[in-house]
UniProtKB/TrEMBL annotation:
Gene3D superfamilies membership: 3.10.450.50
Name of the molecule in the record: DUF4440 domain-containing protein
Pfam hit, one: SnoaL_3
Domain spans labelled SnoaL-like: 11-127
């Protein structure tokens, strides 16, 4: 396996662990994959969040109001990952289900990662709801 292929495999595993941590409610493990200066742009967020501190403030307010999403399934599928030195780019379809009987919702996701002190971290996360994009047509 080449170094680039090994890095891509590592990034794929990081993405899988990110969503496993979310499902487990393990915010510390989830946040370990995020750089402190991560920008987070998602369809449902109140505008772009430009640091992890802004993301934390949003999540703290959401969780205090009892609105943390409860999901049975959160899975990154059809991953395409490229690596250039200490920069990685991951694109994938994120499938979510509140329970096994519910129809899935999906989002197109792009994550930009940097290797910082030997660890890959997400520095930019962009997710667009495919369901909303299809409904808007």
């Amino acid at each position: 396996m080449t170094i680039v292929a090994a890095d891509a495999a590592h990034i794929a595993a990081l993405i899988d662990d990110l969503y496993a941590a979310f499902l487990a409610g393990d915010r510390h493990r989830f946040d370990g994959h995020l750089h402190a200066d991560v920008t987070t742009w998602e369809t449902h967020l109140p505008g772009p969040l430009r640091t992890r501190a802004e993301l934390d403030a949003y999540r703290d307010q959401r969780d205090a109001a009892g609105r943390r999403p409860q999901l049975a399934v959160l899975s990154a599928q059809d991953k395409r990952i490229d690596v250039w030195g200490d920069v990685g780019l991951a694109r994938y379809l994120l499938i979510a289900r509140a329970c096994a009987e519910d129809p899935p919702s999906s989002a197109r996701v792009t994550d930009v990662l940097r290797r910082v002190n030997g660890r890959w971290q997400i520095v930019h996360h962009h997710a667009e709801s495919v369901d909303d994009a299809v409904a808007a047509r």
